[in-house]
Amino acid sequence: MSPLPSTIPAIVRTRVRAAVHRPARLTPEEAAGRALTLRLVSLLLQYPDSELTAARAELTAAVEAMPATPAAEHLAGFTDWFTAQDPEALERHYVEMFDLRRRSSLYLTYYLHGDTRRRGMALLTLNQRYRAAGWDTGGAELPDHLPVVLEFAALAGPGGGEAPLRQHRRGLELIHRALTDADSPYRHLLAALLTLLPPPTEADRAAVDRLAAEGPPDEEVGLDPYGAYGEGEFAPPGTFVPPMPAPPTRIPPAPTSRTESRR
């Protein structure tokens, strides 16, 4: 797409660009199919514990019943492998791909902010987005864990629900590249997800190349700002930070005699 003329007012250019990235209006059937794809990717990206591996037949049947789409084809490529593996082998492979390799970690804000204070802000903002939509994650995982983000996208729909996925498009591309380089079947799940997002721009590709070569920002401060804003330090713009409680009023003890009162 050619650049918009500079003579167009900035607000108009912004709205046009937003319209370009906004998902097209979907039919109810298309919206349901999109939500199913997101839920399946969310489920299949979770740790393959006994409950998930016991449901492999049902998950495979759900994929096979989907209309023929690029996303469904990628999902089928994953479930063919997933159903054929020994459960212990699945667990080992999952840990190797997602727990031991930083470039295929499933925590999206890491790719955008690294281990910096800004990551804490991003986590809080994402959690606030969930709460504003009336959704409680339960706190078992950080709000940027990809299966959590995918479940929210499936529940809230392609507009605001998928906004976090679009925001972290470059991180998703890097995860897909890392899984592809490792020849992991989990690459099919990321490929299925990426078919639902706008195509990457040249700027996206260049940014992913830089991430792959240099990694994200690095500032070893941990995630203290997430959910612990005390006096408002590091709070993102627009965040409501309750005021610090006032110090207790000190009331001197009542005098016990006229002499003590004069003192």
From TrEMBL:
UniProt entry keywords in alphabetical sequence: Nitrate assimilation
Pfam family, one: Nitrate_red_del
InterPro entries the UniProt entry points to: DMSO/NO3_reduct_chaperone (IPR020945), NO3_reductase_chaperone_NarJ (IPR003765), TorD-like_sf (IPR036411)
Source species, domain of life: Bacteria
The keyword Metal-binding is assigned to this record: no
Positions with biased composition (Pro residues): 239-255
Region (Disordered): 213-263
The protein's name: Nitrate reductase molybdenum cofactor assembly chaperone
